[in-house]
Amino acid sequence: MAQDLVGFSSDYQFWMQKLSLWDQASTLETQQDTCLHLPRFQEFLRQLYEVLKEMDSNTIIERFPTIGQLLAKTCWNPFILAFDESQKILMWCLCCLINKEPQNSEESKLNSWTRGLLSHILSGFRFDRKEVGLFTQGLGYVPADYCPGLLKNMVLSLVSELRENHLNGFNTQRRKKISLPTSAVVCLWLRHLPSLEKATLHLFEKLISSERNFLRRIECFLKDSLLPEAACHPAIFRIVDEMFRYALLETDGAPEVLVAVQGFTRCFVEALEKKNKQLKFTFKTYFPYASPSLVMVLLQRPEDIPQELWHQPLKRISEMLREIVEDQTHGSYGGPFECWFLFIHFGGWADIAAEQLVMSEAEPSEALLWLLAFSCSPHDGSPQRAQTMVEVKAVLSRLKKLLRSPILSAKDLQAAAAESQDRDPRPPLCQQLIRRLLLNFLLWAPGGHVNAREVIALMAPSDEIAHDMTGFLDQTLYRWDHLRMEAPRSRKLARELLAELRMVGTAMQGPGSPRPRDVMRRPFLHGMSAENEP
C-alpha cells in the first residue's frame, strides 16, 4: 500500500503541474494537449477517489494539503468538465471532503467551499444566466431566487446520496434515491423534455405491469410519480396527456390505459383544487381543442351534486357531445375520437349513466343511451350507434320487467341479456356494455342479490370476461368511496363478488386451470351472505 501511495504521489504532482499549465494558457496547443491527456486524467481521478474514500476528510487534508487546488482547477477547466464521466468521478472525490459533523469553523468552511464546487459542476454547463432568465420569467420565478434554491436542493441531495453510497461501498442494491422538492422536479421537467418523457414512460411501465384491478394501488403509483401535481403546469399536462393519447391509439383502447388515464385525471384535478388560489391558467389551456363549456361540465364532481340531480349534467354532457360528433357543426373541437378522448378522462360519468339507466323506473333516457353507446365505441357511425342503443334499450326493458317479478332466477336474467335471434351478433364492445348493465342490475336490484353468484358463473365463460368483470367491480367500489355512496347491501355484494373473481383469476393461472364458470360454482370461502347460504 505504501509503494502504491508513492507511485500515486508522483502521478499527483504530474497532474498538478499539467492543470496549472492548462489553466494559464488557452492556446490551441493547450486545448489539444488537454484533450490528448483526458483519458489518462480520468483514470487518475478514479485512482484518486479510491485513495480518498479510505480516509476521513481531516486525514485527506493532512495527506494531500493541495487537494483543494487540484480539484478546483479541475472543476474550472471546461474541457475536463464537458465529459459526464469526469463530472461524476469529480463529484465522488469532492464528496469525500465533506465532513458530516463539522467540529469547528474551518471544517464548516471546507464543507461550504466543497458544496460551492459541486454547485458549479451541476450548473456550469446546463444553465446560462441569460437563458435562465428567459424561462424562469415565464414560470413566475426570479432567476436570483431560482438558481441558488434549485442548486442547493440538488447538491444537498446528491451529497447525501453519494456520501451514503461511499459508506456502503457504492453498493447499488442499497442506494437511497435522491429526493427533490416537487418545485425542483417541475423545473427540471420544464427545462429538460427527455427527463419528463422518461418519468412518464416509467409510470406507464409500473401501471401496466401492476394489477389494473387494484385502483387504490394505481392511485398510489400516480401520486408517487409527482406527474399529476406537476401537470398543474399546462406544458407538462399537454405532454403527458399526449403520451396517454398515443398509448390509447397504439393499444386500441386497452383497459389498462383507460384506467390509467382516468386515475391520472382524478389525481390531476385534486392537485388543481389544492392549488386553486395559485392557479394562473384557464382550463382551456389544458384542453385547448375541446369545447370550453363541455370541459366545465365534465369537471363537475358528482359528489358535489345531489344524487337526484345527476341526470341534469349527464343529459347536458350527452347533448353537447352528440352535437359535436354527429352534427359536426363544431369542427374546431375535433372528431369523434377527440371528443371520446376528452370524455374518458372523466369516465365516472359514463358509469353513473349506466347506474341511472338501471335504477330508474322511467323509460330509458335517449340521452343516456346515446352517451353509453358513444363511450363504448366512439368509432361507430350513427347507424351502428343507433343499433347499440336499440340493443341496450331492449335489455333494459326486460330487466325492468324482472325487477317487478317476486322471484328472480339466473336463467331469467341470462335470457334478459341474451341476443335477439333476428339481428346480427352483437359487437364485443356492445356485449361488454350489456354485461356491465347486468352487473349493475345484480348490485342494485333486491332480487338480484340472491342469484348473483350463479349469474356471474354463467357470464364468465373465459378468463378475459372474468378479468373485465373484476375491473368493473373494483372501479365501482372505488367510485362509490369517492361519492360517499350509502349502499351497504350493494357494497357488501360487490366486495364479495370481487373477492371471488380475484380468486378465479388466481386459479386460472398455470397449465390445466379450470374455466372461470367452474371455479365460480365452488363454495364461497366466506359465504355470500346469511340469506344466501343453503
Write the SSE topology:
Layout: H1 2-24, H2 28-52, H3 57-63, H4 67-75, H5 78-81, H6 84-97, H7 105-123, H8 129-139, H9 143-167, H10 182-191, H11 193-209, H12 215-224, H13 227-230, H14 234-250, H15 255-274, H16 283-286, H17 292-298, H18 311-327, H19 336-345, H20 348-359, H21 366-376, H22 382-403, H23 410-417, H24 428-444, H25 452-459, H26 463-483, H27 488-507, H28 516-520
Helix pairs in contact: 1-2, 1-4, 2-6, 6-7, 6-9, 7-9, 10-11, 12-15, 14-15, 18-21, 20-21, 20-24, 21-22, 22-23, 22-24, 23-25, 24-26, 26-27
Question: In words, what does this structure look like?
Answer:
- The chain has 534 residues and is mostly helical.
- Among the domains are: 2-180, no CATH class; 188-286, no CATH class.
- 71% of the residues lie in helices and 0% in strands.
- The longest helix is centred in the first third of the chain and has 25 residues, at 28-52.
- The chain is elongated, with a radius of gyration of 32 Å.
- It starts with a helix and ends in a 14-residue tail after the last helix.
